[in-house]
């Protein structure tokens, strides 16, 4: 679906906590077609309000439920200090919005979507996010519950990389979104919303990148293999180009995303650096000697220098395809493993506020039992800049004691500095 | 690529005819993050200015050319009277922007893109557009030349369905977008831009639709075949469902986009109407008797009533797949042919202004030799509401006499009322 991005200001005002949360971040259109507008238009920061305006018209009966829509769109949230991909005044995302007949169904949907995001992060982006529930303080403006995936970046800051909200009946009550159930009763619908944005691109860059540039997990790399032909004398060119074409064709037919850079305006050395910076996982070099030997040179982006370089890899189609596919799998697995190791070695289990302060001051994440108040949570933020990133779904067994108050705690929470 | 949608007002002002053309249609953000902005921000009506702002930074040398980018985005143009899909305050489009070293290369690119749009219209949307060049009066604000594809809707109004512009050096001079050529000379780049929008969706609806709803050409139909199972008694269900599953699988494996509607909340009759309204090209019904006969009932969306209905089409996989593929091809060809016949029977060749007035008053398009002034063109608009849609690329041979002035005319132009 696609909804208008200009939302009448009066829509935003209907859900009390929603307008409270978003009003400092709004961009407002006040002039249109040369005239001052009677009602200001909000450039959408998120679409719950305008979606509910339409859901109210579309939903009459339980037969219309569940109603589940998704849109890919730009959204605007005014930022004082921007940071490429991570905090931008405008960003791109997908936002899903659903309406259900029961709370249970809405809760199931919200959980399912955070699972989808978690799987995507692990299996495709090789980012070992920690899924969990947000604290009340950090819950989305207008939601009853917010689920999140939290990722540790290379500088150890936490990135909220995707969220899924159980909105309860907050928006359906504000907008009168009702349905007649199977027994003829009029009820308000139960809703969810969930989103993942271009911020995730920043997450990929900052999880895997190094000083040479990007390092893209093979499964999401637009180019998986870059082929750089090398020749010096004019008569070498024809034979190298022929071999390059053949290797490209072999890999393409095997479903590998491959590109040849045969530009004569740039040197091979320039190209090596360029595609390293672009994060291409595998580089193949082919020179006249390689053609003679019916082999190629294969380099891994994630293993620097000679260690990542293999000479004499056969050009024989089935051997080459198996070799390259194997390397791409190796790189995918290795990037994830490296990120898991990095993450786990930078999370500290704490049992006192002092230990939390120490962990945070070292730039690490702190994990510990927590059942203290919202006020205590804000105090931690004020004194350490760390916030509760989530109550992770994966919880240690046994009884726990809140590290702040000493009271019993049902869950551990993860604290960290974030973007 | 993706460029920001908020463009500083000062950018828009840099190209004189651009700001003149677009300023009446702008939406302006004047408040951000709760504060009055120092410089108003334009919500992009098109992106030439912000693209050139970046091209100026990115382009240094002939090695950087051609630079060709595309973005899929929303754009905003203030409209007093909106019309779904055709004139909307916000719409979605792709916009391409290119920079070249020579005028010839830019002209070739602009022509290539209008050809791409023409092919898409004919081959996929079954819309027999007329490609041509816009008159000076109708040329894009900031372009030297605008190419267009013009489509005749069901009410015989003309729809400008896609455009491609040769921008010359207008924006590169305004923004100082320069490059060093192979001889070390500094030159301004030559540019093009081209776009097709969600307006095209309106074109599809209004070319093929009828009183029962949409009629989608099979090549672009999201659902090409809808299967409606029919059973009355409980014991019929299992056998019908089994046959439906098997037919769905057969068609899916053959690459046909097929959907089954087995909801028990709606009757078959409701479903028939629903998927006709949605424009699904082919409907398959399967009831208990069909299962016994190992056959299905096939209906065409574009042929109403019994004439479009075939009974006893065999369920045998290869026969069924061939039959359905054949029907989809028939429908695609038939929709295009019907639209061509409609178009051609509603274009009148005129040799005087009186004949033009008569044709236009009958709601038809008028085609005739034209070499009169911009003022004459505006007079025609004022007196008949018709504008020059294009000088079609396909021109009659021989000498011609302008139907307005009697002077020699090199080309015929097409006049019509438009949206």
Would you mind describing this structure in some detail?
The structure is a homodimer. The first copy, chain A, is an alpha+beta fold and about 425 residues long. In chain A, strand 9 (about 180) and strand 10 form a beta hairpin. Chain A has helices at about 10, 15-20, 50-60, 105-125, 170-175, 200-210, 235-255, 270-275, 290-295, 315-345, 355-360, 375-385; strands spanning about 5-10, 25-30, 35-45, 65-75, 90-100, 130-135, 145-150, 160-170, 180, 185-190, 190-195, 225-230, 260, 280-285, 295-300, 310-315, 345-350, 365-370, 385-390, 400, 410, 410-415. In chain A, the strands form five sheets. The first copy, chain A, has a ten-stranded mixed β-sheet with strand order 4-5-11-8-7-6-19-22-18-17, sandwiched between helices. A five-stranded mixed β-sheet of chain A has the order 13-12-14-15-16, with helices on both faces. The model of chain A has no long low-confidence stretch (mean pLDDT about 95). The first copy, chain A, folds into three domains: about 45-210, 2-Layer Sandwich (BirA Bifunctional Protein, domain 2); about 220-330, 3-Layer(aba) Sandwich (Rossmann fold); about 345-415, C-terminal domain of ProRS (Translation Initiation Factor IF3), CATH 3.30.110. Chain A has twelve helices and 22 strands. Chain A is about 35% helix and about 30% strand. The longest helix of chain A is centred in the C-terminal third of the chain and has 28 residues, at about 315-345. At the A-B interface, strand 2, strand 3 and strand 4 of A face strand 2, strand 3 and strand 4 of B. Strand 2 (about 25-30) of chain A pairs antiparallel with strand 2 of chain B, so a sheet runs across the interface. Chains A, B: GO terms for molecular function: ATP binding; proline-tRNA ligase activity. Chains A, B: Keywords: Aminoacyl-tRNA synthetase, ATP-binding, Ligase, Nucleotide-binding. Chains A, B: This is proline--tRNA ligase. Chains A, B: Its EC number is 6.1.1.15. Chains A, B: One of its GO terms (biological process) is prolyl-tRNA aminoacylation.
């Amino acid at each position: 679906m696609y909804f208008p991005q200009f939302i009448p200001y009066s829509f935003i005002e209907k859900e009390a906590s929603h307008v409270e949360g978003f009003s400092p971040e709004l961009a407002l259109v006040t002039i249109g077609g040369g005239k001052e507008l009677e009602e200001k238009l909000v450039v959408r920061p998120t679409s719950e309000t305008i979606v509910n305006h339409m859901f109210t018209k579309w939903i009459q009966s339980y037969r219309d439920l569940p109603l589940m829509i998704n849109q890919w769109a730009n959204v605007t949230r005014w930022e004082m200090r921007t940071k490429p991909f991570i905090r931008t005044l405008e960003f791109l995302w997908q936002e899903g919005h659903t309406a259900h007949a029961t709370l249970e169904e809405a809760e199931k949907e919200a959980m399912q979507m955070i699972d989808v995001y978690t799987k995507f992060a692990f299996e495709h982006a090789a980012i070992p996010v920690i899924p969990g529930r947000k604290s009340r303080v950090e819950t989305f403006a207008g939601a009853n519950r917010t689920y999140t995936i939290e990722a540790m970046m290379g500088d150890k800051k936490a990135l909220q990389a995707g969220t899924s909200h159980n909105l309860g009946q907050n928006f359906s009550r504000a907008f009168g979104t009702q349905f007649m159930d199977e027994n003829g009763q009029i009820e308000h619908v139960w809703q969810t919303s969930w989103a993942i944005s271009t911020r995730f691109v920043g997450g990929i860059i900052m999880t895997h990148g190094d000083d040479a540039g990007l390092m893209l997990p093979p499964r999401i790399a637009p180019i998986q293999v870059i082929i750089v032909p090398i020749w010096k004398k004019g008569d070498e060119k024809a034979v190298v180009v022929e071999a390059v074409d053949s290797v490209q064709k072999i890999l393409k037919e095997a479903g590998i995303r491959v590109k040849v850079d045969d530009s004569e305006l740039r040197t091979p050395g320039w190209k090596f650096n360029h595609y390293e910076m672009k994060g291409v996982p595998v580089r193949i070099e082919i020179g006249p000697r390689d053609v003679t030997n019916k082999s190629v040179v294969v380099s891994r982006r994630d293993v620097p220098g000679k260690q990542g370089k293999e000479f004499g890899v056969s050009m024989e189609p089935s051997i080459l395809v198996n070799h390259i596919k194997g390397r791409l799998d190796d790189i995918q697995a290795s990037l994830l493993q490296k990120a898991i190791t990095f993450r786990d070695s930078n999370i500290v289990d704490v049992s006192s506020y002092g230990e939390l302060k120490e962990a945070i001051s070292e730039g690490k994440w702190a994990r510990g039992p927590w059942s203290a108040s919202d006020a205590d949570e804000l105090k931690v933020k004020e004194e350490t800049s760390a916030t509760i990133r989530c109550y992770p779904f994966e919880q240690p067994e046994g009884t726990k004691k809140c590290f702040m108050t000493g009271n019993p705690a049902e869950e551990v929470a993860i604290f960290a500095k974030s973007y």
